[in-house]
Amino acid sequence: MTAPEGERKPARVVVADDQTVVREGIVMLLGLLPGLDVVGAAGDGEEAVRLVGELAPDVVLMDLRMPRCDGVEATRRIRSEYPGTQVVVLTTFADDESLFAALRAGARGYLTKDAGGEEIVRAVQNVLSGEAGLAPGIQLRLLEKLSQAEVRTTAAPPEPPDGLTTRESEVLVLIGEGLSNQDIARKLHVSTATVKTHINNLFAKTGLKDRAQAVRYAYGKGMVRPRAE
């Protein structure tokens, strides 16, 4: 059973950023936000990986451009060596190359440094709940990019892949269209708990690990197609 909001333990966070002023500013900001507990700060990716091994935080807020070991490589190592720790990218860079590299490395959230405190808290809570912690503009960009890359010319809807049931396929399509669990529940007239069960089942069947992978999968299988302009 999930603890009520007031009883939920603060998320233990490590901040990784090579600019001292920026790093200290982020740590100070997070210290003022409810639900977060900063347990460490790293000046580069190598130190971030080390701190994760020592402190076992729930989430790392990860800059991308850092010396010795950049944020993408650090994310890849953390997700491989310490899968209990999630990564939310917090960076100045919002270009497609940075976005896709971070998501491929295993980041489950992606924010730019103009994000407000509430947005950071929401992203951390989302990734810890199994959701994607993507800023709305980033999620839209991701969907648009995938739409352009995965256009399908066949008109007939494909059969459900990988042994998915019809309902699991419906849930996957709605994930691909960017709907939250609550939105999916309302659309399918079921509870959010039922939606989560379907998501767990389809993730197990397809080998998917998070919603960002599910979006790519849905487009790659032709289950979601770009809307006509």
TrEMBL record:
SMART domains in alphabetical order: HTH_LUXR, REC
UniProt key word Phosphoprotein: yes
InterPro entries: CheY-like_superfamily, NreC/VraR/RcsB-like_REC, Sig_transdc_resp-reg_receiver, Tscrpt_reg_LuxR_C, WalR-like
Domain of life: Bacteria
GO BP term (any one): phosphorelay signal transduction system
HTH luxR-type domain span: 157-222
Signal peptide: none
Residue span(s) of domain Response regulatory: 12-128
Keywords: DNA-binding, Phosphoprotein, Transcription, Transcription regulation
UniProt keyword Transcription present: yes
Modified residues (4-aspartylphosphate): D63
Any one Gene Ontology molecular-function term assigned to this protein's record: DNA binding
Stated name of the protein: Response regulator transcription factor
Organism: Streptomyces bauhiniae
Lineage: Bacteria, Bacillati, Actinomycetota, Actinomycetes, Kitasatosporales
